[in-house]
Write a structure and sequence with these properties.
Length: 193
């Protein structure tokens, strides 16, 4: 099984990159967040990979860190979750927020993914909650709720879900308070415009 590929990105689409590894081009499916991170990279890129074998295809899915790969592989073990939906889940929010959401039983992040309804979101929470561990402290729960509120506030101001999540992703972890989070996130969104 291919667990890691390192090479130069020769071509990009919205769903995959072509990674040149010693003259051999590999199509590597990546999340939108990963694609954004590697877009400006002109040198070598290392992907942790999952080889997904089907009757008529062998697809490679790539991740910039091992934790994302591990989370992806846990997701696709759940009945009803294929690799493409698992990638969409990884685009919903940073991995630590997804883990906290699942550990605390928060399904709202998951139901925002096309193809995941309430029933499947509940199944994901039930199957992964114990594997991911419970949220450790009240501070973690509070910061999770603040990010949720900030996301909804940005959406109500007319920003798309993707714009809102991207703005929140760029914030340092030490920012607290919903108002502060929103103010800083708005600066991130305005700089992109």
């Amino acid at each position: 099984m291919i667990i890691q590929l390192e090479g130069i990105i020769k071509f990009k689409t919205e769903k995959f990159v072509v990674l040149d590894v010693n003259g051999v081009g590999h199509r590597v499916f990546v999340s939108f967040g990963t694609l954004k991170k590697v877009s400006s990279n002109k040198g070598k890129v290392l992907f942790w990979t999952h080889l997904h074998v089907r009757e008529n295809a062998m697809d490679i899915y790539g991740f910039l860190n091992y934790a994302e790969l591990e989370f992806f592989e846990r997701l696709i073990q759940i009945s009803g979750i294929g690799p493409k939906i698992a990638l969409y889940v990884l685009d919903v929010a940073p991995l630590d927020i997804l883990r906290r959401a699942i550990a605390s039983g928060e399904k709202s992040y998951l139901t925002k993914v096309s193809g995941i309804g309430q029933r499947l979101a509940e199944k994901i929470v039930i199957e992964l909650r114990d594997k991911l561990g419970a949220i450790g402290t009240e501070h973690d729960q509070q910061s999770f709720k603040e990010e949720e509120e900030a996301l909804e506030a940005l959406r109500s101001l007319g920003y798309s879900l993707r714009e809102s999540r991207d703005a929140l992703r760029k914030l340092p972890e030490d920012i607290t308070g919903v108002e502060n989070i929103i103010k800083k996130a708005l600066k991130n969104v305005e700089h992109r415009s």
